Amino acid sequence: MRLDEALIFQNEWWRTEKVRKELAPWYKREVYKKVEEMINIRQIIVLTGLRRVGKTTIFYQLINSLIEKGVNPKNILYFSFDEKIEDLKKILDEYQRITGIDYKNEKIFIFFDEINKLDNWSSQLKILYDALPNIKFFVSGSSSVDLEKEAYSNLVGRHFLIRVMPLTLKEFFELKKGKKIENFELWKDELFLIFPEYLRKPFPEIVNENNEARIMEYIRENIIGKIIHRDLPKKFKNVNEDLLMSLIEIFYQNPGMLVNIENLSKNLRIAKKTLLKHLFYLIFSYLIRQVKNFRISVFAASRKLQKIYPYHWSLIFGLYRDIEKGKLLECVASSLLDAKFYWRKGSNEVDFIIKNEKIIPIEVKAKSEIYGLVKFLKKFNLKKGILLHEEKIRETKNINDIQIDIIPIFELAFYGSL
């Protein structure tokens, strides 16, 4: 498809003056509201996240909102790099030729989808941003390391980065039931009942899909498969797709496993350098996350004894129908907490360590199993810990001067974070 054909095809509102409902559905996620609030600020908005989480839908909803507010449809440009790659200046020049809009002087809104597939995109965008203050740019991409590194390297001070995750439990419930809920306590029983279903399909397009085989195929083919068999080979040279799938199968079947690079390279009969390169590809594309061993004594993370989890727990269900409940809940916690650290020394271990202003240890266990957490807190003279459990009740236990917040994990899923 020629560039002019692609632009006309992708920007049907230039002719119809509206966005089809199928492209801009009624339900708006919390992250949409966050992006909409930034429409009138100067900086570039960068959306990043796993495939199929709804980044493109957010763009279409914003375009629809702009048109409804009176913006000339021809002053809104959308272009997806998913199928066709073109330099940014060439796209703008062709846009001007087709629409007659003087992009150098008129106020316009530009949406570049999957821009990370364009080499050197951030340098090109920086030049346009600095030269054309009349343009509001929105860009998206599905590769974590690439998109974020490029943005921070070349767009410093010029962008806001927003991560788009799969649905929260609140969003899943609202989409499925067609009603908005604000009060967790009022809907707690219904949310608890729907939580197991939510865990298997927290993607907007399959909220109402009940066929297990189709759910599995959707995640395997539309997310995992496209990343491994299309995105990564396009981006990098000498990608071993079979090795990537083997690694995915290992990590998803054993989430939270401790990875010994030397042993794994021997078992797979590949060079250590090749293994490390392909592990990077999986991190790059939001398929796995590394959780490092946190050394409290020196406030440093050990490079050894790293754990590997699926980037998002739901990816497991693209390959496996079932997973042991304890491992699944640990995966859920790692995703919702955006886990960076765990702690292990000898036979002692804490599932996750949150390090912000304070250090907070977090365990994923049955509600009654607080002994290990208390032991850790006493050992390092900390005052607060969190225990995530699968039951319905939230409570706080105080043991001398130590506070343990016992939180249902489905409540964490409702809010999407602590």
Describe the structure in your own words.
With 418 residues, the chain is an alpha/beta fold. Helix content is 42%, strand content 21%. It contains 16 helices and 14 strands. It has helices at 3-10, 13-16, 30-36, 55-68, 88-99, 121-131, 144-154, 169-177, 188-200, 212-235, 241-253, 261-268, 272-284, 325-336, 371-379, 409-415, and strands spanning 44-48, 76-80, 108-113, 135-141, 159-163, 257-259, 288-295, 300-310, 341-345, 348-355, 359-364, 384-389, 395-399, 402-408. The strands form 2 sheets. The protein has a 9-stranded mixed sheet with strand order 6-8-7-9-10-11-12-14-13, with helices on both faces. A 5-stranded parallel sheet has the order 2-3-4-1-5, sandwiched between helices. Helix 15 links the parallel strand 11 and strand 12 (384-389). Helix 8 packs across helix 9 (188-200) and helix 11 (241-253) crosses helix 13 (272-284). The chain is globular. The chain starts with a helix and ends with a helix.
What's the short version?
The protein is of the alpha/beta class and 418 residues long. Helices cover 42% and strands 21% of the residues.
Strand order of the largest sheet: 6-8-7-9-10-11-12-14-13
Kindly state the number of beta strands. Answer: 14
Main beta-sheet annotation: 9 strands, mixed
Distance between the termini: 46 Å
Q: State Rg.
A: 23 Å
Strand content: 15-25%
Count every helix, treating DSSP H or I runs of 4 or more residues as helices.
16
Main structural class: alpha/beta
Shape: globular
Q: Pick out the low-confidence regions.
A: none
Mean pLDDT: 92
The helix content is: 40-55%
Could you give the order of the helices and strands? HHHEHEHEHEHEHHHHEHHEEHEEEHEEEH
